[in-house]
Amino acid sequence: LPFSAVFEKKIGEMSADECEEYLTKNKTKSVLNKIIHQGYKALHLIHFFTCGEDEVRCWTIRKGTKAPGAAGTIHTDMQQGFISAEVYAYKDFKKNGSTEGGVKAAGKYHQQGRNYVVQDGDCCFFKFNKPNVGKKK
Predict the structure, then answer these.
(1) CA distance 19 to 12
(2) Average pLDDT over residues 24-44
(3) Which member of 22, 40, 78, 95 has the greatest number of CB atoms within 10 A?
(4) Does pLDDT of 31 surpass 80?
(5) pTM summary value
(6) Those residues with Cβ within 8 angstroms of residue 133's Cβ, 6 or more apart along the chain or in another chain
(7) Strand order in the sheet with 82-89
(8) Under a CB-based contact definition with an 8 Å cutoff, are residues 36 and 46 in contact?
(9) 132 by DSSP, 3-state: which?
(10) What is the mean pLDDT of residues 66-95?
(11) Residue 128 CB neighbours (<10 A)
(12) Helices marked H in 1-137
């Protein structure tokens, strides 16, 4: 992918409004997003999300990772004590009113076991038991 590091740095230092005006005026666009997407594709990486009341986090894993491995990306205790994953696709979330309730009402909220391969854009809630390792009696 051809790109100019000087150009990308210049527009990266601009405010959002300045950047939009500059790109429109010069009839050009940044290729940074394309570089990132192609890099993820070449490295076989995907994203999944965890959602809470006050926070949404994006996690990066290798394509083909099963649910326990994805949980382990967050914390090794989650992988070791993995029980199941409640999963829905981000596209279903957007399509059904951008609420978890909307996804459930549409029947797109699924409980998955340890053999489930996490898909790009999945929103996951992992159920796990904290392993009892190293407890003194």
Answers:
(1) 8
(2) 92
(3) 78
(4) yes
(5) 0.78
(6) 80
(7) 56-62, 45-51, 122-128, 82-89, 110-112
(8) no
(9) coil
(10) 94
(11) 19
(12) 5-12, 16-25, 32-42, 67-74, 76-80, 90-95, 100-105
- Give CA angle at 20 (17, 24), nearest 5°: 140
CA 22 to centroid of chain Cα atoms: 30
Residues 6 or more apart from 66 whose CB is under 8 A from it? 114, 115, 116, 117, 118
Cα–Cα dist 132/39, whole Å: 39
Q: What is the rounded average pLDDT of the residues 89-101?
A: 88
Residue keyed to tokens 């491995």: 69
Report the DSSP beta bridge partners of residue 61. 46
Q: Which of 72, 45, 64 lies closest to 131 in space, CA to CA?
A: 72
